[in-house]
Amino acid sequence: MALFSKANDGKLEQLVCVTGAGGFIGSWVVRELLLRGYRVRGTARDPGDSRNAHLHELEGAKEKLSLLRADLMDPESLRAAFRGCHGVFHVASPVSNDPQDLMPVAVDGTRNVMSVAAAEGVRRVVFTSSYGAAHMDPNRSPDDILDEACWSDYDFCARTGNWYCCAKMMAEMTAKEEATRLGLELAVVVPCVTTGPMLQKDINASNNQIGRYLMGTKRAYPNAVASYVDVRDVARAHVLAYETPGAAGRYLCAGVVLHRAQLLGMLKDLFPQYPVTAKCEDDCNPRARPYKFSNQRLKDLGLEFTPLEKSLYETVICMQKKGHLPVIAKQQLRANL
Ligand SMILES: NC(=O)c1ccc[n+]([C@@H]2O[C@H](COP(=O)([O-])OP(=O)(O)OC[C@H]3O[C@@H](n4cnc5c(N)ncnc54)[C@H](OP(=O)(O)O)[C@@H]3O)[C@@H](O)[C@H]2O)c1
C-alpha cells in the first residue's frame, strides 16, 4: 500500500495512525491531523462503540478518517492498523493507578507498537509520555528547573504507590530503547496535567478531577504543586514534533505550574457560584513552593501555550454542556447569600 495518496490539489497526503483515537488527547490529535490534511487511521478497542462516535463528526473525517479495532496487547491487530502508515502517534495507555492492568499494557503494549511499526515500515513514531515520568523526584529542589533532562525516581514512585508514574516511565524507556534497536525515528511528548474541552462524550480522568474540585466533592486539596497544559496545545505539540524535520527526544508540554490553592482560586474566580473545594489537607506545614520549568523546546518548534484560565473556563463549560456538571447560574449564588 502506498504511504501517500494524491489529493485533488495534487498535494501528497500522508497516512498516519493514532492509537487510542477516541480518548481525550487522542481525539484532539486526530482532529489536528485531519485539519492539516493527513489521512488518519485511528485505533480503538471497540471502534463501533458510541464512545467513539464523535470522531466521525470531525471536519474531514468522512473523507480521511478510518477507525480500526486494535488492542495494544494484540500485535496482529496493530499490524493491520499500521500497514501503509508513514507515522504512528502512540497515545493509548490505561490512565489508572491499578498496577495489574497498567504495567503490561503500558510497557508490553508500547513494545508491541514499536516492533510492529518497524516491521510495517513506519518511519516516525510520536510517543505520548506524561510528566509523571519526569517530575516525581523528592530530591529535586524547587530551585531546579523541570525540563526534558528530568526523570521521576522509580523507587520513590513505587514506594508511594504512584503506579501510573512507574508505568509511564517504563513505557517511555521502552519506546526509546526499541526505537534505537529498530532504527525508528522517535519524538516523545511529555504532557502535564491536561485540561480543556472534550471532544468525546465520556469524562476523562484529568477533567474529572477539575469537576470534583469545582463541585467540592473532593473535600480537601493537597498541599502540592502541579503543572497544567491545555489539550489543544498537547495535540499541536504532537503534530509539531512529528512534522519538524530532525525533531527528536523529549518535549516537555507544560503551560504553567501552580499550587493547588492557586488552581482552585482560579476556578472560584471564574465560577463563584460553585462550592469549590476550600480546605487544605495539610494546614500545618508551609505551602509547597511552585518549581521552575522549561517549555522552551516546544516554543522553539513554534508552540504557543493557551492561558490556563481560558482552558479551565472552556473545560467547565464543556462539562456543563455534556451533562457532567450541573449548570448553576450566578444569580443562584446571590439568592442563597
Ligand atoms: N489527561 C492527562 O492529564 C494526561 C497527562 C499526561 C499524559 N497523558 C497520557 O495521554 C494519553 C491519553 O490519555 P487521556 O487523558 O486522553 O486518557 P483517555 O481519555 O482515558 O484515553 C486513553 C486511551 O487509551 C486507550 N487504551 C487503554 N488501554 C488500551 C489497550 N489495552 N489497547 C488499546 N488502547 C487502550 C483507550 O482506548 P479505548 O477506546 O479502546 O478504551 C483510550 O482511547 C495516555 O498515554 C496518558 O498517559 C494524559
Automatic annotation (TrEMBL):
<dbReference type="InterPro" id="IPR036291">
    <property type="entry name" value="NAD(P)-bd_dom_sf"/>
</dbReference>
<feature type="domain" description="NAD-dependent epimerase/dehydratase">
    <location>
        <begin position="16"/>
        <end position="247"/>
    </location>
</feature>
<dbReference type="InterPro" id="IPR050425">
    <property type="entry name" value="NAD(P)_dehydrat-like"/>
</dbReference>
<dbReference type="InterPro" id="IPR001509">
    <property type="entry name" value="Epimerase_deHydtase"/>
</dbReference>
<protein>
    <recommendedName>
        <fullName>NAD-dependent epimerase/dehydratase domain-containing protein</fullName>
    </recommendedName>
</protein>
<dbReference type="Pfam" id="PF01370">
    <property type="entry name" value="Epimerase"/>
</dbReference>
<dbReference type="GO" id="GO:0009809">
    <property type="term" value="P:lignin biosynthetic process"/>
</dbReference>
<keyword id="KW-0560">Oxidoreductase</keyword>
<dbReference type="GO" id="GO:0016616">
    <property type="term" value="F:oxidoreductase activity, acting on the CH-OH group of donors, NAD or NADP as acceptor"/>
</dbReference>
